[in-house]
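input
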Amino acid sequence: TDPLKNLLSSESLLKPNGHIIALVPNFHSRAMKILGVGTPTLNPREHIQFFSQASINLCAEKASLKIIRHLQELPIIDLIYPYLQFSEKLVSEIMERQEAYYDVYIFQRA
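output
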C-alpha cells in the first residue's frame, strides 16, 4: 500500500554498494493491451499502484536511491498465447517497445 515506505525500509537494510532489485508490473505491457481488465496484474489485492518511468524515478529520489539499470522481463505470459502467433520476432518487438510484462529496476544508494 506504500511503495515509498517499502523502498525507504529496504534502503536502510542496504550494505555499502548493495542493490535493491524490484520487479514492477508494466501497465503498458502487451498482455495488458490484449487482456485488458483480465490481466492478472490488475488484482486490487496485490497491485494497487502502477508506475511510470517518471514516478518510479521520483520514488527512488525520495528514498535516496538511484536507478542504475532498467530491464524488461517476461515478454509473453501464457494467458496471451491464444491471441498471438509466437515468434522470436514478436518477442524482439515486445522488448523493443518496452511491452514486457514486468519492468525490472536495480537501485543503489544515490
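quick obs: The mean pLDDT is 92.
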